[in-house]
């Protein structure tokens, strides 16, 4: 099969790899019909995540058609059109029983924190991802869901991570009716979080980014007020000015490890790899939230130390909530919202590229070219 493979920072190519095989009775083999490049894939592409090995196939957002099944899978059949959450989980452990699918205890021997994630380095289990023609799906009896007949493949694709993660970020904020919500980052996850905040009763939503085209999308897609970081000497001061000098009720960090804004933090994290990610956005969230407010973190960070203003969070009495999104837990409500016409996740998509041209897709997304917000990858016909 054809698959994207990692060759080192900023170096990927499409190669022929052996077709995945059934390794366990609960496995499925899915022929990918659509995949996507996620903002967190860029952390891998840039060499930010530890133990990203040569030859690894990225891609934790994908939908496809079931091609083969292990003997123990009873809830799917060959030919089913399925959406696969980015979390790999067993459905039976202590954490899965509590809906913490992203923290499954049985799928990642390499960490005590995160569970398994498709295509996200050996730190997240070493599973090959879906930027390929075929992908092995472990625990197929609990992870994948048959896509409803009324749902488009592109809506389903956005629910495998980006939109579900944004929705989860708004959930973590425990937004009360009429509250002010600030979302740091206007990429796909931040845009989904901003739109979701309205669904949860926000009275005001402010989107902050440094790219005009993404802020324009925030106004169109999420009906948010917008702030361009580059137009203000101190974005935290601007956040305070916009909130009666108190700060926001809820701040959502949808940026993560590669935030700009502080040269020292960016160099020590992105360049020298001395931190698990630049904490600039997270520190802005801590500084920009009101006393007694909430900070929701859904941007991806690595496992290393980060210079976070934890003392300020303590002294302000903030509630900090964070996790990798337990995607499947969000689906029932999101299905309802799509069917009712309240949301249209596929409207985030701006570009579609063939799998053979995925290197160009990564370059375009990484370099913020052609007003790129969300890129879908279309595998070649196998």
UniProtKB/TrEMBL annotation:
The keyword Iron-sulfur does not apply. Residues 8-377 form the Enoyl reductase (ER) domain. It comes from Microbacterium radiodurans. Belongs to the zinc-containing alcohol dehydrogenase family. Its cofactor is Zn(2+). This is Glutathione-dependent formaldehyde dehydrogenase. One of its GO terms (molecular function) is zinc ion binding. It comes from the Bacteria. The keyword Oxidoreductase applies. Keywords: Metal-binding, Oxidoreductase, Zinc.
């Amino acid at each position: 099969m054809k698959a994207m493979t990692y060759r080192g920072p900023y170096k990927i190519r499409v190669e022929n790899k052996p077709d995945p095989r059934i390794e366990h009775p609960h496995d499925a083999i899915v022929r990918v019909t659509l995949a996507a490049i996620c903002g967190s894939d860029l952390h891998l592409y840039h060499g930010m995540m530890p133990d990203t090995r040569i030859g690894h196939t990225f891609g934790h957002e994908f939908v496809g058609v079931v091609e083969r099944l292990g003997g123990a899978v009873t809830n799917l059949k060959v030919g089913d059109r399925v959406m696969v959450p980015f979390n790999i989980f067993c459905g039976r452990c202590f954490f899965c029983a509590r809906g913490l699918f992203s923290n499954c205890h049985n799928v990642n021997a390499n960490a005590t924190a995160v569970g398994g994630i498709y295509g996200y380095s050996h730190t997240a289990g070493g599973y090959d991802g879906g930027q390929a023609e075929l992908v092995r799906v472990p625990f197929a009896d609990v992870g994948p869901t048959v896509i409803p007949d009324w749902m488009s493949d592109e809506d389903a694709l956005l629910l495998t991570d980006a939109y579900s993660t944004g929705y989860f970020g708004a959930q973590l904020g425990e937004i009360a009716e009429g509250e002010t919500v600030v979302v740091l980052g206007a990429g796909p996850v931040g845009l989904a979080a901003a739109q979701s905040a309205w669904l949860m009763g926000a009275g005001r939503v402010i989107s902050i980014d440094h790219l005009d085209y993404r802020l324009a999308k925030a106004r169109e897609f999420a009906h948010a007020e917008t702030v361009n970081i580059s137009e203000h000497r101190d974005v935290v001061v601007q956040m305070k000015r916009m909130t009666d000098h108190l700060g926001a009720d809820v701040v959502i960090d949808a940026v993560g490890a590669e935030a700009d804004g502080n040269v020292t933090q960016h160099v020590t994290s992105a360049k020298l790899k001395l931190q698990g990610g630049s904490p600039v956005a997270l520190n802005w969230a801590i500084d920009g939230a009101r006393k007694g407010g909430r900070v929701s973190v859904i941007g991806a960070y690595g496992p290393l130390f980060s210079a976070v203003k934890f003392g300020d969070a303590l002294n302000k009495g903030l509630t900090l909530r964070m996790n990798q999104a337990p995607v499947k837990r969000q689906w029932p409500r999101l299905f309802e919202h799509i069917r009712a016409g309240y949301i249209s996740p596929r409207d985030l998509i701006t570009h579609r590229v063939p799998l053979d041209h995925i290197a160009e897709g990564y370059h375009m997304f990484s370099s913020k070219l052609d007003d790129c917000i969300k890129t879908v990858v279309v595998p070649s016909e196998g």
